[in-house]
Fold this sequence. Notes:
Elements: H1 18-26, H2 29-39, H3 42-46, H4 53-60, H5 64-76, E1 80-83, E2 86-89, H6 91-94, H7 106-119, H8 122-128, H9 140-154, H10 157-162, E3 172-176, H11 182-190, E4 195-200, H12 202-212, E5 221-225, E6 237-243, H13 251-263, E7 265-274, H14 287-299, H15 308-318, E8 321-325, E9 339-343, H16 349-360
Parallel strand pairs: 3-4, 3-6, 4-5, 6-7
Antiparallel strand pairs: 1-2, 7-9, 8-9
Amino acid sequence: MVLQANRKRVVIQRIATFDEFRDAVSAYRLPRVLLVALELDLFTTVGDRSWTIPDLAKELKVSERGLSILCRNLAAVGVLQKKGIIYKNSRLGATALNADHRAYRGGYLNLITRHWADWVRLLESVRSGLPIDHDIPDSPDYRRQFTWAMHHRTLEIAPAIAAQVHMGHAKTLLDLGGGPGTYAMAFLAKNPTLHATVCDREAALEVAKEIADTHKARRRLSYLSLDFSKEPIPGMYDVIWYSNVLHMYSPEENRAIFRRALAALTPGGRFIIQDAFLHDRESLYPLEASVFAVSMLLFTEGGNTYSASEAAKWVKDTGFVAVKSLPIRKGTEDWEDGVLEASAPGLHPKTTARRTRSRRN
Ligand SMILES: C[S@@+](CC[C@H](N)C(=O)[O-])C[C@H]1O[C@@H](n2cnc3c(N)ncnc32)[C@H](O)[C@@H]1O
């Protein structure tokens, strides 16, 4: 169970005093209030009506005292609106948090609600070095839910990224570990002559097909069911997009996947990695990327977050050339400075020029 963290930075940056330590630890309180509201499906029940606490308590089958304190806090942070004794949904509550609305992001909300109980077990993973449910195999049912969660996480981010990661003359793109195919669909929407393939496990591809059914560009999308950590990648592609997969694997596993990716790229083809990279010398920041590594400890056998420079070294060691970071406008990123591009050696004119120059030096 892999948590996809929020793309905004975590708020706490430094803890030096006892008060700052206490405040940091106490930060669990408000998240718990929000998650209880989700567990009650409160925003769906509130819907587009106005409620008094006694009426809503009756409907939700909870105590009036408990609900009144809960709702006061929900109103204080703006997810409910309060006027006198009346409560209503905020815009967010009425849409993304409301199961009866078409903008509902239930997949992602279910995932983060379940993660509370998972994170309570962190000590187990710190002791063992293993994921908390390492003995439970990945079920197709779980994979389906997770894939919907990934879609709900990136459906606004992906088009913004696709607008900034240019496909140039590429005709084919492989979305490696593409899950719901949200990124593949965004690249197709932006590039009218591109064809894309989503590569993932069968249960994830079923969700990708359901989502693609609602898109015009679905005729240019195909599917590849494959375990790319074990098998070679069939076919040849101009671009391989490896987004939010790097952190699931150990350095050795990633290097093996990079070799398979290189073998599946046309000469001069591009391998583009998007992930929660660390950027400072000690690999501590952005803090969000460090905290995200804790999720990898909880949910994967060997995953972690990595510095952009070590990932760049792995791709160079694999045989890629022209490795560089791709700039993405602040506020539109999936992760802060999170896109790294490399090219397969070959016909790419810039690559050839650079290699000729470096040979002369
Ligand atoms: C965290 S999700 C990322 C989805 C998408 N690329 C994105 O950026 O939102 C990772 C995806 O990689 C897939 N995946 C990981 N390892 C895989 C493997 N060895 N073979 C096939 N799919 C894999 C998972 O099933 C999951 O859908």
